[in-house]
Amino acid sequence: MGLSSVASFMQERLLAALASQRSAVDYLEIRLEQSEATAVAFRGRRLEAIDRSFDLAGGIRACHRGGWSFVTFNNLDELQSRVAEAVSQAKLVGDESTELAAVEPVTATVRVALGRDPRGVSLAHKRELLEHYNRLLLEADPRIQTTATSLSDRLRTVWFVNSTGTILEQERLDVTGRFGVIARDGSTIRQGFESVHSRTDFDALVGIEERVLGAAGRALRQLEAKPIPAGTYQVVLDPYLAGVFIHEAFGHLSEADFIYENPRMQQLLERGRPIAISALNVVDDGTVTGQPGTIAYDDEGVPTRRKYLIKDGVLTERLHNRETAGKLGEAPTGNARALGGTYPPLVRMTNTGILAGDTSFEQMIADIDEGVYAVRMLGGQTNGEMFTFAAAEGFMIRNGKIAEPVSDITLTGNVFQTLTDIEAIGSDQVWLSGGCGKGGQSPLPVAVGGPHLRLRNVVIGGR
Ligand SMILES: [Zn+2]
Fold first, then answer.
1. How remote is the CA of residue 246 from the centroid of ligand 1, in Å?
2. Which pLDDT score, from 0 to 100, does residue 7 have?
3. Burial class of 68 by CB neighbour count within 10 A (0 to 12, 13 to 18, 19+)
4. What is the dihedral angle through the alpha carbons of 12, 18, 22, 26, rounded to the nearest 10 degrees?
5. Distance between CA atoms of 172 and 190, rounded to whole angstroms?
6. What does DSSP assign to residue 342?
7. Ligand 1 centre and the CA of 353: distance in Å?
8. DSSP 246
9. Neighbours of 176 (CB within 10 A)
10. At 31, is the secondary structure helix, strand, or coil?
11. What Gene Ontology terms describe what this protein does at the molecular function level (predicted)?
12. Is the pLDDT score of 290 beyond 70?
């Protein structure tokens, strides 16, 4: 049996199951995911995992009078009865009205433009490659205590049909290398991390020794750095930290399910409201080529597009699934995403970032007498409009130049204040891969993007 006949077989099964119940509820969809994955992992010198898995499973969502149900299945023979179950459950909960934004029905097939297919690379070879990188890290310096490294790849095909006429088949490949180290000197312990991601090609993981060693370099430089004195500083964020800041502190607030449930945020996040310096542009863009958050159609069959969350400093759009768009009377954005076939779609980001401005890095630091250059992120948390981020690495800026490394850089602030405290936007925007967590679905592949960003009045809590 060839691939195409399998595909049409799957779609026919889903369409038949849908047809039996489509008029029983206001809305009905079936999503089926087939995935083939491998993963190899080391912890220190120990091989921790070497797995190959093959999965076929899916989920059914029904909506009736505003009430939703979600039922999973892992056997096509039980599909009819699972669909009936989803229908009766939705009818039990619904007592209002179903308001889904209208979307043009679409029939489409999306294929991966494969480079070197990871399915053609043996597990033994993947293990050898990872062992090589892992050993490089372990032997980089006597102060490296241990590592946590992995190579993984996952090729998925998702079939989707719904009661408004959309029929999709979408392939997706994720090839990922993750490299973490822990370095120690006396009682001081530091972490370093690097990740590499491709949507098309296993060879993205080959010949990346320098990037892998970057994880060790960051941890070792932090070991030698002195803790920064607490205070208020002028701060330059590197593109990665700027991107993570906009994802964590602002992107999640832009998710309309959050806004819909939060009256204070409905006021603060009113469209048309100036909320940042006028030079700031922030997008969520599922169309960027080859990034982790790039999709053709979301998990409700809605086409993705570029959305300006902030355009010229003004709040412009927010992120929707069909229901939040329908309820708030706004255009759908194609931001309903699920971690896998057996998870319900939630309002999620795709590739979210700050667009380039016009200031070079040299210009940005040239007139800073004493400031901080904060690089990458180790961890962080947000609480409504408040955020706290720990930079992975940092340096003092003195008399317009990068000076000695400093550690323990924890940045705290209010996102709305920070958006108006931006002093300069770099001309050097890049996209970097990341993972996002929400509602127990983690890590969802996303990209964060940013240029360098200069901020005033940033509170840094030192040790
Ligand atoms: Zn997130």
1. 10
2. 58
3. middle
4. -120
5. 35
6. T
7. 12
8. I
9. 21
10. strand
11. metallopeptidase activity
12. yes
What is the 346 CA–ligand 1 centroid distance (Å)?
12
Helical ranges in 46-143 per DSSP H: 79-93, 123-138
Cis peptide before 443 (omega within 30 of 0): yes
Nearest-CA neighbor of 362 among 427, 289, 416?
A: 427
User: Can you tell me whether residue 9 is helix, strand or coil?
Assistant: helix
Residue recorded with tokens 């009377």: 329
414-461 pLDDT per residue, tens = 999 999 999 999 999 999 999 999 999 999 999 999 999 999 999 998
Q: Do you know the residue count of the chain?
A: 463
- Where in 206-260 does DSSP place strands (E)? 226-227, 231-237
Cα separation, 12 vs 23, whole angstroms: 18
Mean pLDDT (whole number) for 70-97: 96
One-letter amino acid identity for 161? Answer: V
How far apart, in whole angstroms, are the C-alpha atoms of residue 153 and residue 173?
A: 7
Closest of 36, 8, 38 to residue 172, by C-alpha: 36
Helix (H) or strand (E) holding 442, with range, is strand 441-450
Domains of the chain and CATH, by start = 3-224 (3.30.2290.10), 227-460 (no CATH)
Find the 245 Cα to ligand 1 centroid distance in Å.
10
Both structure tokens of 209: 């020794």
Q: How far apart are CA 328 and CA 368, in angstroms?
A: 44
Structure-token pair, residue 101: 């934004």
